[in-house]
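Notes to self after the Tuesday call (sharing in case useful).
The group wants a holo model before anyone commits to mutagenesis around the pocket. I volunteered. Ligand is flavin-adenine dinucleotide. Logging inputs and output together so the record is complete.
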Amino acid sequence: MKGQRTEEVLELQRTLRRFIDEQMPRDAVEAWDKQNYFPRDVFERLARLGVMGVTVPQEYGGSGRDIPTAMMVIEELSKASMAIAIPFIMASCYAGVTLVECGSEDQKELLLPLVADGKMLFAYGWTEPDVGADLASVMTTAERDGDEVVINGAKRFCSGAAISDYIYTLVRSDPRAPRHHNLSLILIPPSAEGVTIDGIDAMGLKGAATTDVTFQDVRVPAANIVGGEEAWNNGWSLITGIGLDIEKLEVAAMALGLAQGAYDEAVAYSGQRRQFGRPIDQYQSVRHSLADMRTSLYAARLVLEDAAGRMQLQIPAGTETSMAKLFVTETARKVVLDCQTVLGAYGYVKGFECERFTRDILAMPIIGGSSAIQRNNISKGFGTER
Ligand SMILES: Cc1cc2nc3c(=O)[nH]c(=O)nc-3n(C[C@H](O)[C@H](O)[C@H](O)COP(=O)(O)OP(=O)(O)OC[C@H]3O[C@@H](n4cnc5c(N)ncnc54)[C@H](O)[C@@H]3O)c2cc1C
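Result:
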């Protein structure tokens, strides 16, 4: 789809598609999914195309902060394999966007050039066993001890922790301060003494395995406080800023890629599968279902591109990014399940991509703020539409 993309972005899209065809063949993708494996060698070759720096300003070694292009890359990679798409997000968005928006100048100078080279992956350590949507209630503690910070607690569903360079960890840094003024963000290397990582057996999103992480008297330098010393106890304003809006779009872009991939397979399958003497795509019910899916994908892409365009122009877009997250992930889930119907029994067994797309799409309306939480956000703005 051409849309409003520049020739430069379209060229990057073509390059990516060639890379995916050559380096991410279907049998390899199936093996990564089955083994919950991160193909770091393929990721490093992808980094050599320069795509990791798409969120990093040129003065720090990137190609310039370009949110719509980052979303295009996520969509293209998600169409092929989450084992590469999620690590791309961990580099360009979790690390890149976070450091640009929240990092101190020292952290930017040190880490952003590594992001641009694909050598700096962050995992998000926000959710806890007793804390899901209500993130301000996290119980993992951080205490100052001279030039160090000591962390104790547990994080759940920390995706990609084992393959990351830092876990970007939301902690309660002052037990006495009022809610929203008692949180900080700390960069914790997964290799630090006192960090334990245990896999969680999730049904999809394989490759950047989701995990339980525990911290027992983990010590890191105070230099690892995101935003520097002055950001101590200021973590809430960091996580509710632009980074959170972009995170909603990352999930929407993954969902769109999964749905586009499922649709492409359903179109191809329905042209080949013959029943009652003709291809099933000659039956009106199948054609209309595919027509509805195509329309849904078109609408979802427009909504995502509009919200990403607002982020690029730095127009406040908390409501628009919530609407995009809600609409695109719910639409994409319906498209993938409808594709499964087109494939019939073959959409329910391994060997067709549909089975993997179905497992992966089910997470999208949950992660990065559930659909209910997005509806809460959107309803706060009732009456301000005009
Ligand atoms: C595969 C996978 C990967 C993940 N990766 C990460 C990661 O890398 N880092 C990370 O920090 N987290 C991660 N998560 C966690 C994810 O972000 C949380 O699951 C999500 O925030 C929701 O939290 P919860 O599941 O505990 O649900 P809860 O918050 O317990 O909510 C349960 C239900 O109640 C509803 N609900 C809750 N509060 C409200 C409310 N105020 N109004 C209306 N409805 C409400 C929710 O919509 C949901 O339907 C991952 C989860 C999965 C499944």
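Two things stood out.
Residues 123-124, 126-127, 132-133, 157-159, 202, 205, 210, 363, 366-367, 370, 372-373, 376 surround flavin-adenine dinucleotide (CB under 6 Å).
The chain has a mean pLDDT of 95.
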